[in-house]
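A quick aside before the break. I want you to see a complete sequence-to-structure record at least once, exactly as it would be stored in a machine-readable document. Don't worry about memorizing anything.
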Amino acid sequence: MVEIDDDRFNKILTNNVVANNWLIGMISPQMIERKDGAVIIVSSIGGLKGSAILGAYGISKAADFQLARNLCVEYGRHNIRINCIAPGLIKTDFARALWENPDNLKAALSRTPMQRIGEPGEIAGAAVFLASAAGTYVNGQQIVIDGGATIT
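That is the input. The structure line, written in tokens, reads:
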């Protein structure tokens, strides 16, 4: 954070927070009209801890949590639920540099009680729950899906 320039920081915040707010603003009128809706923001466990490498990213992901909480308060009366999923290391193209490098993978697994990285389908299950009738009273929350990495 000490060395990041304003343009890079603003780009990260725009991509990870402001764009979520824009999208929710675009879809919310239809949800308000039908008095029903579920929004799921994909955040990250990076928003739950500090980082000497990905500080701006973590700040943006923490802001996603607060965006969900604030919009929960604003849209809850319209029966609109807004929640976050906070994945840990998941085997995706986005995180490829972390799980393909043996040293990075070993370091990540040393901090993960389940001793493995997650699969995309394990994130999808939480999204299905939040979007389904089973999740209709969950609002303004963050669900951490990280194999226990944030508790170690």
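Two observations worth writing down. Strands lie at 37-42, 80-87, 142-145. The longest strand covers residues 80-87. We'll return to this after the break.
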